[in-house]
UniProtKB/TrEMBL annotation:
Belongs to the L2HGDH family. Transmembrane segments: none annotated. It is an enzyme of class 1 (oxidoreductase). Pfam families: DAO. Residues 74-479 form the FAD dependent oxidoreductase domain. InterPro entries: FAD-dep_OxRdtase, FAD/NAD-bd_sf. This is L-2-hydroxyglutarate dehydrogenase, mitochondrial. Its EC number is 1.1.99.2. Keywords: FAD, Flavoprotein, Oxidoreductase.
Amino acid sequence: MMLARHHHRLLAARSLAALSRPNRLHMSYFHQWEKLPGEGREPRKGVERVLGAIRAERFSAAHPVSGAVEDSFDAVVVGGGIVGLATAREFLKRYPDKTVAVLEKEGEVAPHQTGHNSGVIHAGLYYTPGTRMAYTCVHGAELMYKYCDEHDLPAERCGKLIVATNESEHPQVEKLYKQGTANGVQGLEIVSGEKVREMEPNIHAYSALHSPNTGITNYWLVAQRMAQEIRESGRGDIKLSYEASEFTKTKDNRVRIRGVEPRQKGPNVDVVAGHVITCGGFYSDYLAKRAGGNPHKDRVTTFRGTYYQLKTEYRSAVKRNIYPVPSGGGIPVGVHLSPTVDVRRGHEMIVGPGACITFSREGYEFFDFKLADVLDNFSNPALYAFVLKNMGLSFGELYRDLNKKAFIKQAQRYIPDLTLDMVEPSYAGVMSQVFEPGGIAAGDYILERKCMDGLVLNLRNAPSPAATASLAIAEMVCDTAAEDFGWPKSQKNQ
Ligand SMILES: Cc1cc2nc3c(=O)[nH]c(=O)nc-3n(C[C@H](O)[C@H](O)[C@H](O)COP(=O)(O)OP(=O)(O)OC[C@H]3O[C@@H](n4cnc5c(N)ncnc54)[C@H](O)[C@@H]3O)c2cc1C
């Protein structure tokens, strides 16, 4: 009896499959199994532990006979950096009945900017009062300290000195003091050169701004924990090696996102979302273009930030973050010294980063070259304007990226006894920056709203301090999404 029913189901499955693929295969020539090994089994606890409940369920589910593999979620966040992950986490927190998936192109979360930065929890000094950047940095820094505390992750309020090396730089210290105070940064103090020497005997300064609440953490680790929280919720999925390559609107007013493993031709896997938020870091413009955004506006330029680090025996030459006053151009905050609490790279004192324009979006090394990215740069008038305005800075950075002596010279201005043999090479990160017409670095986050007939929200500019601010950016993005997508706000903070 059982066998007859099984046989009947098998025949039905075969004829359905034949119907759905007319003239392509003579199915009867093939020996077909109803299920492939593992299909339709009970979800395995081991898979759940590694990949989360949703994955364990789907991994065991039978492949639909129609041939379409399709996962469906209330919301999909594209980009598994700290901003995308924080956004998905905030969404789950606000909407206890809804599901979310994060799509990440690479084989792990946080592989790009989030995994390769200075690790500084910025206090909020550099940003124009009243901007979203200023608000989210100050608020986000407190949220970040709290998050690290609650999840027992390393975070140290080690403080920071922004040093003027001579009298002519002192007005910058005063400007930052006023700006920081207007932004609500606590504990700021202008200190004399003598006081700096007491605090940091190896630092030469005319004066400095002391920010005791600036700190350090490991954003890569924070992002891993956020991903874990999303998986553990049972309502969230993280899809890795999933490059969102095509967005189409379905008949029932949802978005189908076609994904493929990067640098591979297939298989294509589809995810269907009620709504989509893209947080693509230095691919945010490419991604927005695919997701119904404006292809001509808010284009990204990438800069490589190379680091050196003090050799082990010199690591404790300074105790806290030491920054120069900003050098202008809107891009670098300057080559600084920062202690790290990095699970992969350890407790080091890094020196950097530079800000050298790259010839590939993933230009971690000087000679990394991708024709499509270079052509994109060449066709970006805002970038020409930036380079023309900042000729010395742009070519200087190219030179310093290749020349250790010139690179370290920048730090020697405030740590004069630093010699070349005291430092060794360290990692590099690639930073994303949108330039506005006229070549001015966009000084705030850019949200492109109501794309694809109101189904998509694109976050298009999230440069530093977006790691510090990620938890606050997530609140801002979810507030905007609620407005645009008609989501209720009432379930917030449940
Ligand atoms: C050298 C350097 C130093 C910095 N220092 C600091 C600092 O000290 N403090 C601070 O707060 N900030 C710092 N920043 C800035 C901070 O790291 C970034 O602003 C932040 O990490 C941005 O996070 P994100 O999620 O937007 O981007 P990312 O971390 O770059 O994540 C975006 C993700 O989207 C994925 N993606 C892109 N396209 C697709 C697609 N089509 N399909 C699927 N996935 C896709 C990418 O693979 C990537 O993982 C620094 C940045 C750099 C580079």
